[in-house]
């Protein structure tokens, strides 16, 4: 009987010791809190764009053909500002691109009236465009990403057109028009390694205008996790007509920018 009691006493003591050791064991480490995949990027850029197309100020005046290289625009530039931004949270995000250019053109050959009897023309143009889109990243890997984009492009155009009839009679007209076009497109980025990458963007839309579209391609280089630069080419076109106002133009030329990731 005493032997049985000793065995029971030893069993109870061992159980109590294991319980005490369990009570003294450190609590398990908390699960790591996932870091949100959020990116904010700001990119001032420079677009060495030329301008070509057809412009008209009002119904009873002829339209004019415009074909101006970037060097001519730079020589006659009044003011320019260009910036782009991006916000992304996981697969969803927002893009914004703003451009403002004010230029005065009066050299013979830059602006040509499309009617007999008109011997000269000069143009003062202020162009503001803002493209704002949301995007969804439908493909995401370590070496390639692809986004669907959809949103709108705002145009605000102010033109002052001075014509010379028979070389002696000046005729002036000016107008300002603002409109919005829905746009949709695709953006892709490929990682090449060693900080280099390739990016491409394209969209197309219509609504207030007959058609607007954009294509852009760049070679990118990331200096570190925050700073990057890109160089490439961009083409932006629109065909808008309302009453006698005509703005059927395209902007195209090299583009370069420096971006900072917050």
UniProtKB/TrEMBL annotation:
Under which name does UniProt file this protein?
A: Outer membrane protein beta-barrel domain-containing protein
Tell me where on the tree of life, at the top rank, the source sits.
Bacteria
Q: Which UniProt keywords apply?
A: Signal
> Where is the organism placed in the taxonomic lineage, from the top?
Bacteria, Pseudomonadati, Pseudomonadota, Alphaproteobacteria, Hyphomicrobiales
Signal peptide position in this chain? 1-21
What InterPro entries does the entry give? OMP/PagP_B-barrel
